[in-house]
TrEMBL record:
EC numbers: 2.7.11.1
Keyword field: ATP-binding, Cell membrane, Disulfide bond, EGF-like domain, Glycoprotein, Kinase, Lectin, Membrane, Nucleotide-binding, Receptor, Serine/threonine-protein kinase, Signal, Transferase, Transmembrane, Transmembrane helix
Recorded GO CC terms: plasma membrane
Principal location listed in the UniProt entry: membrane
Name of this protein: Receptor-like serine/threonine-protein kinase
Superkingdom, natural source: Eukaryota
Membrane topology per record: Single-pass type I membrane protein
Family: Belongs to the protein kinase superfamily. Ser/Thr protein kinase family.
Entry's localization field: Cell membrane
InterPro entries for the chain: Bulb-type_lectin_dom (IPR001480), Bulb-type_lectin_dom_sf (IPR036426), Kinase-like_dom_sf (IPR011009), Pan_app (IPR003609), Prot_kinase_dom (IPR000719), S_locus_glycoprot_dom (IPR000858), Ser-Thr/Tyr_kinase_cat_dom (IPR001245), Ser/Thr_kinase_AS (IPR008271)
Domain Protein kinase: 498-757
């Protein structure tokens, strides 16, 4: 396919305005600016080398098109976008430029424009830039907002061809109507728009639809906030939890987005020229695109194969059957397998007959049809209880059926029931079909509520209908941050009715069970003990906040369940249990080699950093310990159990709690003793955890010995130069000393969020890090230490409140210029302000308040580390707010 792309020569700049084709740099380039051009044969490459843009010829065609493809998979069928799909360039004379009017333009050899981006709402700009972003999006914007999709003049993601990629948004707007966002190629060799389109029908509950020449060919079934109800294979949690989302964005409109769990996997959806939509994933080892999903397959997936009021069943003989109470409209056609006529009612509904004359006619009722793909064209009423949904249907003679679906609401069908399928192997929803009373058996008629109870004996027919009480259905569809709500019965079945065999363990707040959803996805269910102080609202608020946390090193909360006293949290299942299970078991310890342990330490640190700093909320975990670090199948650590987490406002740093929770041994002293918790408390626990990982011993196992705890013991060995004796014998030999020492150091420099280290220059002339490092040992009492290549070189001795004990002649000037206070931030600021000679202060976690008197020397700004230094200034030097001290971020204190 990619005839003509020279993979070595990627792109050279050619000036449009000069004819001097000098040997300009031919390195990979990801953008072109105004006046630059891209010739046939040259390509742009996104900075991560994932996507490539250039001219190509599809299949046997010799015409040239401008397109974007996956760079790694270039030889395979991997085009994701084509610009001039209607008007190819006949030869290799095509050129892409950012033209004088700021638009992207393709011209042929005669200078004729064959394609233009035609950006309309465009700021007149002399510095327009087109960037091939790492997402595969070609973005035209001003130079100073390069790559900013929100301020782009034009972007290929808003003008897609046949491919839906992660990060692309598809508008779902009932006012706009059907959105035929993607159109197929005409044939394998011709990218011009073909017969098929793929997009969203937003009416009622949105669905994905494939159209053929404008007629429906396939639909996904309605979106219930979790899955497309007509694609039961989507019940695999990973599929929907990390994939599709219906989100209301800043512009007030709803969009479908798709973000797979594994961002590094190459994934895409494509509507093929043959009308088949496929989900594809690049298989690097086999160098082909694996097809994960195809629609429509032959048979019942074809739109409305059986006509109205009929059910298509792949395993049925015949495939098409009229719904109960209905018969084929044209029997001879039906018997010759022409189902287009559909079915008609045996007995008219009571409301359809002249009810005034026919007194005594039996009342209409409903028969439920289980495991169905719900019919097309539903009206949706939100915030309606199952009973009133039923009443609503009975009150309106046009209503032919109703269904209560969690995440959608009350669905009512008024016209014919079309495109109904029966899912034999589980999945699907319950459709309540309205029938005349005489068509209903006696037992069925007396049944009031058709909402199904799950029957454990028929787990094959397990429905993904997660119907729950109506008051918590409201709004759940429109608020994507809300967590999926599971039905208690569903969870009960998934966990085999909370059987003892499924019990994974007992946490402080209740037992945890292993479960399995109908799609085969494994889950962990935490059943909170009924006597929990929290109200339902607080419970829901808290978990919806936690649901917003997404990080690979945090255990993912998949959903929850509230019904009566019953409160449950549903998490992804971690096959390798928790860290303590390996770490402290002499038989399993050895399976955690140093490389694994180091990865685990890194992972926990990343997760914790995300909680503390990177997530929009500031979250303090408060119970970080080995048993709360779960391990996935690849032994990646995930922090779990946010039961005690507290969420902090933006600048709130510490809080008081009247109840000390947490686990002794891991708790920072100030928290355990005073109930004062902060980010520091977590970092302290992290330090303990790191030492446990290095030593393979529980912090608490030191209680009986001479040492207070692991940190104390570590500190002692370290100061005797025997730090490596700490290391778990099963990993000691094989591990790089440097890493081990760094981790021990990390555990001991506790509790500080940031390394407090000074690195000496390599030599007087070379500022790169040398072999000497200086630090405060953040231990009580603190001391200053100099290391040479990670080994202690010199120690100041502990600080005795006046001087370092190993420096008896420490001069008094020094003493007066450095004061160490064991106090809090605000107190430190106050102390500095109260002392006229204080020129600056810094509050360092674990050390306390540092104050400078006189000159502040040897400062260095570090991009990702260091401490906040507060420099005292006259209030006139400060902003309008008259702050008295001004922070200088990220400085190292000299
Ligand atoms: C350029 O114009 C000539 C004459 O009209 C035509 O024969 C040729 O095909 C054109 N080339 C392209 C690339 O359009
Ligand atoms: C741009 O506008 C021109 C003239 O109106 C039109 O012929 C062309 O099809 C447009 N191109 C695109 C990509 O919409
Ligand atoms: C754009 O460039 C033209 C010609 O170089 C110049 O006259 C004009 O002032 C520039 N406009 C802006 C906004 O810089
Ligand atoms: C675009 O921005 C970059 C970085 O901000 C700058 O180096 C470059 O000179 C700018 N180019 C133009 C054409 O203004
Ligand atoms: C597209 O539709 C046209 C006419 O409806 C038909 O002739 C052609 O075969 C169709 N192409 C494909 C690929 O189905
Ligand atoms: C993510 O995808 C990449 C590339 O396909 C693969 O190498 C890696 O193992 C995947 N990671 C996970 C966790 O699936
Ligand atoms: C690639 O294909 C092989 C063989 O089908 C399969 O075992 C492997 O899991 C695939 N790799 C990915 C990343 O899907
Ligand atoms: C099937 O029946 C419809 C009328 O219900 C008719 O129009 C159509 O031609 C029939 N199709 C075939 C293949 O006989
Ligand atoms: C310094 O930190 C404060 C709060 O931590 C932040 O609001 C501010 O933007 C930072 N300033 C710089 C220059 O990074």
């Amino acid at each position: 396919m990619f005839t003509g792309v020279n993979p070595i020569k990627r792109f050279c700049f050619h000036s449009v305005y000069t004819l001097l084709f000098l040997a300009l740099s031919c390195s990979a380039v990801n953008q072109i600016t105004r006046g630059q051009s891209l010739r046939d044969g040259d390509t742009l490459l996104s900075v991560d080398d994932k996507f490539e843009l250039g001219f190509f010829s599809p299949g046997i065609s010799t015409s040239r098109y401008l397109g974007i493809w996956y760079h790694d998979a270039a030889e395979a069928d991997s085009l994701i976008w084509v610009a001039n799909r209607d008007r190819p360039v006949p030869d290799r004379s095509g050129v892409l430029t950012v033209a004088g009017d700021g638009n992207l333009v393709i011209s042929d050899g005669n200078g004729t424009r064959v394609w233009s981006s035609n950006a309309t709402a465009r700021v007149e700009s002399n510095d327009t830039v087109a960037l091939l972003a790492v997402t595969g999006n070609l973005i035209l914007s001003q130079n100073d907002t390069v790559g900013d999709v929100d301020r782009a003049f034009w972007q290929s993601f808003a003008n897609p061809t046949d491919t839906y990629l992660p990060n692309m948004r598809v508008l779902v707007d009932a006012a706009v109507g059907e959105n035929h966002a993607f159109s197929s190629w005409r044939s394998a060799d011709d990218p011009s728009p073909g017969n098929f389109t793929l997009g969203v029908d937003p009416r009622g509950a949105p669905q994905i639809v494939i159209w053929e020449n404008g007629n429906r060919r396939w639909r996904s079934g309605q979106w219930n906030g979790l899955i497309f109800t007509g694609v039961p294979s989507m019940t695999t949690l990973t599929n929907f939890q990390y994939g599709f989302k219906l989100t209301r964005e800043d512009d007030g409109r709803l969009y479908f987005t798709y973000n797979p769990a594994n961002a590094s996997a190459l994934l895409r959806f494509r509507i093929g020229w043959d009308g088949i939509e496929e989900q594809l994933r690049w298989n690097e080892s086999r160098r082909i695109w694996d097809v994960l999903q195809r629609q429509p397959e032959e048979g019942c997936e074809a739109y409305n194969r059986c006509g109205e009021f009929a059910v298509c069943d792949e395993s049925g003989r015949p495939t098409c059957n009229c719904m109960e109470g209905f018969r084929p409209r044209n029997l001879s056609e039906w018997n010759s397998e022409n189902f287009t006529g559909g079915c008609q009612r045996n007995t008219p509904l009571q409301c359809q007959s002249n009810s005034s004359s026919q007194t005594g006619g039996e009342e209409d009722g409903f028969r439920s049809i289980r495991c169905t793909k719900l019919p097309d064209f539903a009206d949706v009423h939100e915030g309606v209880s199952p009973d009133s949904c039923r009443e609503r249907c009975l009150d309106d003679c046009e209503c032919k059926a109703y269904s209560m679906i969690n995440g959608i609401g009350c669905m009512i069908w008024s016209g014919g029931l079309v495109d109904v399928q029966h899912f034999g192997t589980g999945g699907g929803n319950v459709l309540n079909l309205r029938l005349a009373g005489s068509e209903l058996g006696k037992t069925l008629r007396t049944k009031q509520n058709e909402t199904p109870m799950f029957d454990t004996s028929k787990s094959r027919e397990f429905s993904s209908d997660l119907s729950g009480p109506a008051e918590i259905i409201e709004g759940s569809q429109m608020n994507p941050a809300d967590l999926p709500l599971f039905n208690v019965n569903c969870v009960a079945i998934a966990t085999n009715n909370f059987s003892i065999e499924n019990k994974l363990g007992q946490g402080g707040f209740g037992p945890v069970y292993k479960g399995k959803l109908p799609g085969g996805e494994e889950i962990a269910v935490k059943r909170l003990s009924r006597i929990s102080g929290q109200g339902v609202e607080e419970f829901k608020n808290e978990i919806s906040l936690i649901a917003k946390l997404q990080h690979r090193n945090l255990v993912r909360l998949l959903g929850y369940c509230v019904q009566g006293d019953e409160k449950m949290l549903i998490y992804e299942y971690m096959p390798n249990k928790s860290l303590d299970f390996f770490l402290f078991d002499p038989r399993k310890q050895a399976t955690l080699d140093w490389a694994k342990r180091f990865t685990i330490i890194e992972g926990i640190a990343r997760g914790l950093l995300y909680l503390h700093r990177d997530s929009r909320l500031r979250i303090i975990h408060r119970d970080l310990k080995a048993s709360n670090i779960l391990l996935d199948e690849e032994m990646n650590p995930k922090i779990s159990d946010f039961g005690m987490a507290r969420i902090f406002g933006g600048n709130q740093n510490e809080a008081n709690t009247n109840r000390v929770v947490g686990t002794y041994g891991y708790m920072a002293p100030e928290y355990a003793m005073e109930g004062l918790f902060s980010v520091k408390s977590d970092v302290y626990s992290f330090g303990v955890l790191v030492l446990e990982i290095v030593t393979g011993r529980r912090n608490t196992s030191f209680r009986s010995s001479d040492h207070v705890n692991l940190i104390g013991y570590a500190w002692e060995l370290w100061s005797e130069g025997r730090a490596l004796d700490l290391v778990d014998p099963s990993v000691r030999g094989s591990s790089p000393q440097e890493e081990l020492l760094r981790c021990i150091q990390l555990g001991m420099f506790n509790p500080t969020a940031e390394p407090f280290l000074l690195n000496a220059w390599k030599s007087a002339a070379d500022p790169s890090p040398g072999e000497f490092t200086a630090s405060f040992l953040l231990q009580t009492p603190p001391q200053a230490t100099i290391w040479r290549n990670q080994m202690t070189y010199w120690r100041s001795g502990p600080w005795d409140k006046a001087r370092f004990t190993n420096i008896p002649d420490m001069d008094t000037d020094y003493q007066s210029s450095l004061t160490l206070l064991d106090d809090l931030d605000q107190e430190c600021s106050r102390q500095c302000l109260n002392n006229c000679s204080c020129t600056a202060y810094s509050f360092v976690n674990g050390i306390g308040c540092l104050m400078w008197k006189g000159k502040v020397v040897d400062l260095q700004v570090l991009p990702f580390a260091g401490q906040d230094l507060y420099l005292r200034l006259a209030s006139t030097e400060l902003g309008e707010c008259h702050l008295l001290v001004q922070p200088i971020n990220r400085t190292v204190i000299g």
